[in-house]
Amino acid sequence: MWQRLALIRQFKLNFIRLLRARGTADEIAKGLALGVFIGMTPTFGVQMIIAVFVAILLRENKIAAAAGVWVTNPFTAPFIYALGYETGRLLLGMDRVALVREFNYEAVKRFGWDLFLPLTVGGIVLGVLCGVITYALTVRAIPVVKTWRVPRWPRPRRRKDK
């Protein structure tokens, strides 16, 4: 039974470790908000590198920034990018992009631009919104969580073989 709970236990431990990280609540919340902002942008694959680099430049919490990027993971990315595309498309007043009928350089370039521009604009808008919400929730949650006493997780008993 314990093997099935190992993933939940690991998530719990990493969450507690993140919230108990060294630094003030403001520093950790800023790093996490920065990571969430970058996680909403269409930079899938290099988001963690960008988040840590920007956290170094802004002197924010690098671990929290790297953790915040994981808001975009293989399970949530389709939903986040679809919402970002639709938000950007509506803000820019663009029609939905249609698949390329002719496969030539100009058609593919136009398709890429019609897809990338609304995705970027929508990602930035959603990133700012989610980053502000993340900061507000995290800066209030960290002082409370740092006072929690987390009980030890029961360990599986080893069998004695004769």
What does this structure look like?
The chain is mostly helical. The protein has one domain. The protein has helices spanning 2-19, 25-40, 47-58, 62-68, 77-92, 105-145. The longest helix is centred in the last third of the chain and has 41 residues, at 105-145. The chain is elongated and about 70 Å long. This is DUF2062 domain-containing protein. The chain crosses the membrane at residues 32-56, 63-84, 115-139. Keywords: Membrane, Transmembrane, Transmembrane helix.
Which secondary-structure class do the elements indicate?
A: mainly alpha
H-E order = HHHHHH
- Biggest sheet, in brief? none
Helix fraction bin: 55-70%
Say how many strands there are: 0
* Number of DSSP helical runs: 6
- Report the sheet-strand fraction: under 5%
Terminus-to-terminus distance? 23 Å
What is the typical, i.e. mean, pLDDT?
83
Q: How would the global form be characterised?
A: elongated
* Structural domains: how many: 1
How big is the Rg?
21 Å
Identify low-pLDDT runs. Answer: none
Keywords: Membrane, Transmembrane, Transmembrane helix
Domain DUF2062: 9-144
InterPro entries: DUF2062 (IPR018639)
Transmembrane segments: 32-56, 63-84, 115-139
